């Protein structure tokens, strides 16, 4: 293999490593009843480098310990809702979950 081919191969490998992983979205605000089973199912279907973005109308504090025990890391962010037609809560919680 020539030196140029080696450099191109290294560049392609670095580009693939820098690409964001796939992200699934699960909005539990639309689930009727406790969302725990839906969340666990979505986590079970993640690829090794996949991410799950959980959206909830409340901070899912009880979930954090479960995530840690099962080898996941997470980042939580509270955002103000922008949907003016919705008179419910003014906040939505986004939890980005990935395998540790």
From TrEMBL:
Residue ranges of domain DUF2249 in the record: 26-81
Disordered: region residues: 1-33
Compositionally biased residues, Low complexity: 1-19
Any Pfam family matching the protein: DUF2249
Protein name: DUF2249 domain-containing protein
Annotated organism of origin: Natronoglomus mannanivorans
Lineage: Archaea, Methanobacteriati, Methanobacteriota, Stenosarchaea group, Halobacteria
